[in-house]
Amino acid sequence: MGRNLVYNMCDHGYSVAGFDKDEGKVDSLEKEAEGRKVVGARNLNDFFAALKSPKVVMLLVPAGKPVDAVIGELKPFLSNDDLVMDCGNSHFTDTDARTEQLAKEQIHFMGVGISGGEYGARFGPSIMPGGAREAYDRVAQMLKDVSAKVNGDPCVVYLGPGSAGHYVKMVHNGIEYGLMQLIAEAYHLMKACLNLTNDDLHNIFSKWNKGRLKSYLIEITADIFAQKDDLTDNRLVDMILDASKQNGTGQWTSQNAMELYLPIPDIDAAVSARDLSGLKAERVAAQKMLEWRKVAFAGNDTELSAWLENALYFSMITTYAQGMSLLQRASKEYHYDLKLDEVAKIWRGGCIIRSGLLEDILSAYSAEPALPNLLVNKALGHELQACQDGFRLAVKTAVDAGVPIPAMMASLAYYDGYRSGWLPANLIQAQRDYFGAHTYERVDREGIFHTQWKQKQN
């Protein structure tokens, strides 16, 4: 990814020096540079000698201790007003700590989220920068030049101070977890209930990608079903072990949402589903013990795929809604001053979660910057109401078939909970006051109350 980003910058007229401890990678960088303005450095002395002052250094290393280790190695070569940009998936609290630490030595630090994978890095990613405004202004033109473009607009914007960029990237990845799980659940339900070939699935997802579900993830899903395996006569998807991995960013999103007391159940369910998939041996053993009398699906292929299109569209809206709601809450808590229309705007191109739906989200926040939740946007709310019947039928089908669709069910529960003017939390408050004297509020008067309940003797 780092090498591709170097070539991308060179294509836009920038001269770049690249350093890696693996000299083989440096050799590859120089060999593939093809006359571009690239300097391959095999040690830090040569690397920093190639940079103009004040220097700008971009890091693309794994999150956590590796970032601190690299910064420690760079510091002897850094001077006042130099800028270090962490372009990996660092936790936002680590970014805040590094910003504060380096500021004491008059060194600028920025957390920059980049989405688009290796291809995006080469031809235009979505870029999410945060940090001091004056530091961003130094590299703004370069970031705009190398970013993806949608209708001529660069998919990069200054997001806010401190860790704003890495926070937005974290939530981006949380939404990504949710969308991927939802797509996998639609696949599971069709695979379990319909006698579809991989070609059939390819055709369904290709059709969906031409309509309201148009998105990068739907597009690549269609491609995946058509991919042949090089080692067998099968399709590759059928030869891949059903145990998914994760890099932690989805988990961070869920953890932080809980710290901020904000529900993001679609994303939570997606994180848990990946964890459950990792229990492969236990699941195989449990399948033999925990039988279920499946109810055969009585409908036809077209009917179920139509319901699932509604289900996916509905739950994609709620997943974006939960992510944007979290950004709104975090912006106030951490003083980022995020503008959600700008976030939606830079996610429209280059990034993994780009989709046609983001145009509607951009319109919603452009018209109502303080919109509390996308579910109450008039246009999107109408879409949810229009497709909920098919969604509910898809959920019922999954229940009858014993097919787990945790993210879809979480999406529907979130919608039904959010639109409920009354929820049974009064009983929970009564229970808390009964056993722990935690008090409660009343519907008929102001104040905090506690009742001496008739406690049963143990």
Mean pLDDT: 95
List the domain count as a whole number: 3
How much strand? Answer: 5-15%
Number of continuous helical runs: 19
Number of strands: 8
CATH fold category name of the largest domain:
N-(1-d-carboxylethyl)-l-norvaline Dehydrogenase, domain 2
Set out the fold topology.
Layout: H1 2-11, E1 16-19, H2 23-32, E2 38-41, H3 44-49, E3 56-59, H4 65-74, E4 83-86, H5 92-103, E5 108-115, H6 117-123, E6 126-130, H7 133-146, E7 149-150, E8 153-154, H8 164-193, H9 198-208, H10 216-226, H11 249-259, H12 265-277, H13 280-289, H14 301-334, H15 340-346, H16 357-367, H17 378-401, H18 406-418, H19 425-436
Parallel strand pairs: 1-2, 3-4, 4-5
Antiparallel strand pairs: 5-6, 7-8
Helix pairs in contact: 1-6, 8-11, 8-12, 8-14, 9-10, 11-12, 12-18, 14-17, 14-18, 15-16
Q: What does this molecule look like?
A:
With 458 residues, the protein is of the alpha/beta class. It folds into three domains: 2-162, NAD(P)-binding Rossmann-like Domain (Rossmann fold), CATH 3.40.50.720; 171-418, N-(1-d-carboxylethyl)-l-norvaline Dehydrogenase, domain 2, CATH 1.10.1040.10; 424-458, 6-Phosphogluconate Dehydrogenase, domain 3 (Single alpha-helices involved in coiled-coils or other helix-helix interfaces), CATH 1.20.5. It contains 19 helices and eight strands. The protein has helices at residues 2-11, 23-32, 44-49, 65-74, 92-103, 117-123, 133-146, 164-193, 198-208, 216-226, 249-259, 265-277, 280-289, 301-334, 340-346, 357-367, 378-401, 406-418, 425-436, and strands at residues 16-19, 38-41, 56-59, 83-86, 108-115, 126-130, 149-150, 153-154. A four-stranded mixed sheet has the order 3-4-5-6, with helices on both faces. Helix 5 (92-103) links the parallel strand 4 (83-86) and strand 5 (108-115). Helix 8 (164-193) runs antiparallel to helix 14 (301-334), helix 14 (301-334) crosses helix 17 (378-401) and helix 14 (301-334) crosses helix 18. It is globular. The mean pLDDT is 95.
